[in-house]
From TrEMBL, chains A, B, C, D, E, F:
SUPFAM superfamilies: Creatininase
Pfam families: Creatininase (PF02633)
UniProt organism field: Halohasta litorea
UniProt cofactor(s): Zn(2+)
Protein name, as recorded: Creatininase family protein
């Protein structure tokens, strides 16, 4: 069920019967020469809407702009400051409680949002309002992702390429996959991301000239479809698992 | 040109040549028994994307959740607190300046956002960063809108109904238009919105039982199309007018 | 009853019997070549104190500095940033609740404060503390004001001129009324305040060279007296109407 | 020169020639059974306006509500939270710099404001904007004050009583001076304000049943007049001393 | 009992039986040519740990960096902005309540922290969470301190010198005591800290070339020991006095 | 060189010649039945002081209280809210720039601080003030740590046990190592920390009854010494590497 498509009287029954909401969040940021800047929010929205359709759980509209200052040197990257992102997400999530929502899945497709969603989740949980957890599709099927590609990459790599080839093929520049690989950072061993244990880099451009990592050339729409379905299964299961929990079990434990 | 669909190298030329961005903003909130909760962001996105396509100016992704606490008594209304909304919009708009953007049109379709976009606009202009103005489609064609309907209404009335009938007909419950009219506040004269000059109401529900105003029954997709095109023309003209201004003319005048 | 003139034991009975406070707020900002910068706070204080005297309701001291950045190009304009204004007003209003106040009339004479007082009002109402409404004198007698002058104006025009001629005649430069009219923006038709529906101006100086609008030459102290009395009647009525409301009726309605 | 009484063109010369502003700040809070709640802002305004008249320096309108939570148990006390007070004062003071003001005297008559005005003063000075100092009348003539009364008191005592007897005699309940003394804390030795060196009290009511300290019975309007004139002389001298300083001398010294 | 040295199960009994915590706070800032920059936090920690050991009350780790912008012109001075200091102290103190703490002694050895600890104390008390008071060793034995030295000084003077000679003798440059005296401000009469009653200085360097005041040459470790023991006795007594208070007595009194 | 032990004149040469500061940060939180609550700040301080002594670089005092809400169910855990922690660290770090510091190593021994130090580091770097990186000892010698113990653990496990056995043996309850292991979570496989890819736990107590993980029984002071020395070597190398970088190289790269 997609909240934005419904008229309010048609939502009454849902809020009477359920207390779970699925919230897609992504970013708008460079994803190399071959992928659209909307990659992360397209993926998040794809998963969230698919799981909502399969389960009947409520999906909200998508948050399209996230925490991406580390990609700003590349044209078009949009971002908000971290405190602003946290407060924005906290505010609308907290307000969902007014309708009876007490558990939320942040379907997130941008690594840069993770820690902030966790921080918001703690705020909401620690004051007893809402239990919110963050889900990234690739974390739910790590082995499948590893097997699918020779050289993975956390940003703009083959796994994101395959997903967009599956979800929005017209937005992928298939003729630039080799350029994406050759102009970026194929293997992490090439990178000097740490010095004596300290993470020394702050921006994507510190490590990769074209903004992406991994080898994109073995991505295909078919692989994308397979990964999408497998991870969607996980999200469906997660939604049902979460909906079935007693609320008290989700809240903080008492002091010893 | 839609930012989220582009790969970063394909945006270089735009930022070299232009400094204007079009930003759609709406809300997700009840729009009566006949319209979807996404009405405002659907309309904002519709105008922004159309004008961008016609002019070649850059359109960003849509902000789907705005300042709607006054609709919260109806199922599904989402909102953020005003300070949070302002900071979120300010943050990503300000960051667009990093790519060279120095003028922005907030294509807004939610009345509750207006004053906040103006406040953000002042912050950005007063420190010399960006000149941002707020545009609502109906403000650009007031006479056309007045003529089109017998009983207009600022929220969920015939003009928004007609636009959604045009843009997303499958989301309108045409069989509920009479119920929308009869269950809401048809004419403002019926309302007691002020007492001795003071605005006394805070929430939509204070005035209207089903959340909407006006007479929706004479809305048609054809009227929606006509209004959409007329207002799109205005937005196109506004974009071109704004792009042609010297930056200094847009900045605050000096002290007398 | 004026709070600042009373010793604390003499206020006990008021707080026992009543729960209404009248709070005057204005600005200190340019009002053209003919009017004092204190125009708005003088007017607000005038109405608030008069109504308090007539009704016995409690009036607090005046907030003299408001949200006036749009007048800053003219010598002497003082202002605070909007978030600071909101927090200041919220803080002392909220603290009035400690003495039992649960309803407040913001007697405001500065247009630039309106939206901020509304936002503060919502904060106080939504958490169940205080019901606060904003009142501007001219909104309470729109027809009288329209009839009184040939060319009105929202700032420094004949209606504010007439009121200061009535309240503080020694502060009006009567010999500059023609200069005020001729050096300002007499009729709004002359202005290009909007482009294709978008409000494009931010500062008073964008539209008016001397900071004021309308035709001040037909303002007189007698007209000022008449308007003052008529609007004071409205404020008296509003105070009594508000005092008579059950508190629950003033608080937000429940979720549908 | 009183800013609020002037039309903007008449301020041009001042800002051309001078860069000093005098800002009166007080509080609205209980001052015992004999004095009005406005005591502190009446005194501050009295001194600031008198000094401005004598010297020609610019005086702004008065800030009537300050940091007085420690008096809240007594009817009518108004207050704002400290961070809000600081931000409000900082905001309008900082904005005075837009007109060329670079030095400010906070004419303050409320002890509870002192540390906050100092903190604001540091913010403004450390970033090189404005040099602002806080002045309390009794600090400028400590010996005179000590000699004038047998039992002084920091709040609602004879020195404040005498000043209001001089400035606004109609607001003093002269028939309650004995009651004020007998119902309050006459001598500090009676108080147990510290335990083993730690200040243990937070609120006025912790030490004094009627909110005041000292022996008010030897206050007279004549003593008030004498103190007012002596302290006004000091403020006049301070204004002239400050106006004569080179700006660089007022700014922070360099790092050693 | 020192919290940081204990394993959590060994703290259970304390929280069962007691509700008092001792929190040492100081600064890291210049203390002249003869004393270490850690002087204030060394002293605070010294007193807090000694009192905790003697009484069995719980002592927390030390806050080493406080509000010291007024010493920044001297190499090495560290400081945080006042709002940040207040929020940091408020946050960890408030969280102590989660374990049952309802009264706190801030053992503070830096004058620049005092007003901020008072402000935090009010926040915690006014919402009924914790009663926190600020204690500075020299305030508890003012007569002893006065008698001990010919020329005292509030910063880097003989009393702080003597304490560090007692607590950490290896950190005192005894061969620089004369230089400290001669390069600083020996007697306050030399200073022009006020003009006509207004405090005009903001930074230590405005008054003293080497950052310190008073005559350090008659400081000895033996005097330090004596003062330390006398003030420790006071802190012990304060702790026991505070622990014995009923909680309700420590909370704000009711409205009259 | 330890800043807090130095008198300010003795720091002049350092700031003339160097621009690096080492800042130790930890936490005060439960570390199981066998380790002191100060474990993390003891370790951080140990490394920072050792490296400063070996290299001559400047070490500041330690931040003893960090972001530890996830341990709050266990007696004695202290914590500050994340925004407060970030602002506190940002404030004093930023102020170090006043003395010429332009690069900082946060020697951190608490996992819960990492993301916040990174966020602060970005703030400082993005505005061109300071390049700050976060270093955790175990990240610098991952292979050594892995080899040293059969069952490691991120919190209160054998590696932290060994370090405290080395640094402060008197604070380790060696007789509780078995109890620590048996009452906690020995192996991560036992945990259900994720559901379908989503991290579902928020608090330590969700996974471990006594607050710790891993098998502590093969920790020894000798292993602690070996690890301490190896990681100290890394920190020394990191300090020298960082000091040798040209400042421009550490700042953000330009827009492509």
């Amino acid at each position: 069920m997609y909240l934005a498509d419904e008229a309010w009287p048609d939502l009454e029954r849902y809020f009477d019967e359920e207390s779970l909401a699925i919230v897609p969040l992504g970013s708008t940021e460079q994803h190399g020469p071959h992928l659209p800047e909307g990659t992360d929010h397209i993926i998040a929205e794809g998963f969230a809407r698919a799981a909502a359709e399969r389960t009947g759980f409520l999906c909200t509209p998508t948050i399209n702009i996230g925490v991406s200052p580390h990609h700003r040197q590349f044209h078009g990257t949009m971002w908000v400051e971290p405190p602003v992102f946290r407060d924005y997400v906290e505010s609308f999530t907290r307000n969902l409680a007014y309708h009876g929502i007490d558990r939320v899945i942040f379907v997130n497709a941008h690594g840069g949002n993770v820690q902030h969603l966790r921080e918001v989740g703690r705020r909401l949980r620690d004051d007893g309002t809402i239990y919110a957890i963050e889900w990234m599709w690739n974390e739910s099927i790590p082995d499948l992702v590893d097997e699918a590609f020779a050289q993975n990459g956390p940003h703009g790599g083959p796994k994101e390429t395959a997903l967009i080839q599956h979800l929005r093929p017209e937005l992928v520049h298939d003729d630039r996959l080799e350029a994406a690989r050759d102009g970026g950072l194929t293997s992490f061993d090439e990178a000097t991301m740490r010095q004596h244990g300290a993470r020394t880099f702050y921006d994507a451009i510190d490590n990769t000239d074209n903004g992406v990592l991994g080898d994109q050339t073995d991505a295909t729409a078919e692989t994308g479809r397979r990964l999408f379905e497998a991870a969607s299964d996980q999200l469906v299961d997660l939604s049902e698992w979460l909906a079935a929990r007693p609320f008290a079990e989700l809240m903080p434990k008492d002091h010893v």
